[in-house]
Write a structure and sequence with these properties.
Blueprint (H helix, E strand, L loop, with lengths): L2 H13 L1 H8 L5 E13 L16 E16 L2 E12 L3 E14 L5 E13 L1 H5 L11 E14 L4 E10 L5 E9 L1
Antiparallel strand pairs: 1-2, 1-8, 2-3, 3-4, 4-5, 5-6, 6-7, 7-8
C-alpha cells in the first residue's frame, strides 16, 4: 500500500470517527446524503510572473461529488462528517478531502454549518507553471487543513441546494454550489 493510499484510507476512517463517537454517546438519527457540486478554486498564489517560461494560472473550475452523514445531537443542532472528490481544470488535476461539520437545522430542514478538515490538491504542474515538460519526480500533491462555512437549503423532503465557501490554510478560496439528496 502506498503512502498516498494509506493517507486516503486514514482520512476516510477519520471522516466517520466523529459521527461514530456521537452515535455511541446516544446522538440522534443518522442523516446520510450524497451530492454533486461545481465551484471555482483560487489557489492564492500571488505571483506576478508572466515572463516566459512561467505563466502562473492558479485558478481552476472544479466539479465533483461529496457524501456524508449528519447526526442530531440536540434540538436543531447536527454534527457530521463528509468526504469529497473533485476534478479540476487548468491548475488542478483533482482534489479530495474529509471534513467534520457542526450546524444548525432550521424549521424548514435547511442546515447552516461550519466545518473543518483536511484537503489534498493534485496540481497540474504544466498548466500551473506554463512549463510544458516539468522535471520528473516533482511532487504535485499539496495538502493542508480546510475550514469553511455553508448552507444546505431545503428544496423538498430529500433535496437540498448547497452553497459554501472553503479555504485551505487561509491561502486559497473555494466557493462551491451543489445539490444533495438525503436517503
Amino acid at each position: 500500500m502506498t503512502i498516498k493510499t494509506s493517507l486516503i484510507a486514514a482520512a476516510a476512517l477519520a471522516a466517520f470517527a466523529i459521527p461514530g463517537a456521537a452515535l455511541a454517546q446516544g446522538a440522534g438519527t443518522a442523516h446520510p446524503y450524497v451530492g454533486a457540486q461545481v465551484g471555482y478554486h483560487d489557489l492564492g498564489v500571488d505571483a506576478d510572473v508572466t515572463a516566459p517560461p512561467l505563466n502562473i494560472d492558479d485558478n481552476a473550475l472544479i466539479f465533483g461529488a461529496y457524501a456524508g452523514v449528519d447526526f442530531d445531537v440536540a434540538r436543531n443542532v447536527v454534527i457530521g462528517a463528509e468526504g469529497n472528490f473533485n476534478f479540476g481544470n487548468s491548475a488542478i488535476d483533482n482534489e479530495y478531502g474529509v471534513a467534520a461539520r457542526i450546524g444548525y437545522r432550521t424549521a424548514n430542514g435547511s442546515i447552516v454549518y461550519v466545518r473543518g478538515g483536511y484537503q489534498w490538491v493534485n496540481l497540474d504542474v504544466a498548466n500551473f507553471t506554463g512549463v510544458a515538460n516539468p522535471p520528473a519526480g516533482i511532487d504535485d500533491t499539496a495538502g493542508d487543513y480546510l475550514v469553511g462555512v455553508g448552507a444546505d437549503i431545503a428544496t423538498g423532503s430529500r433535496a437540498r441546494i448547497r452553497v459554501g465557501v472553503d479555504t485551505i490554510a487561509f491561502d486559497s478560496v473555494r466557493p462551491t454550489v451543489g445539490v444533495n439528496f438525503a436517503f
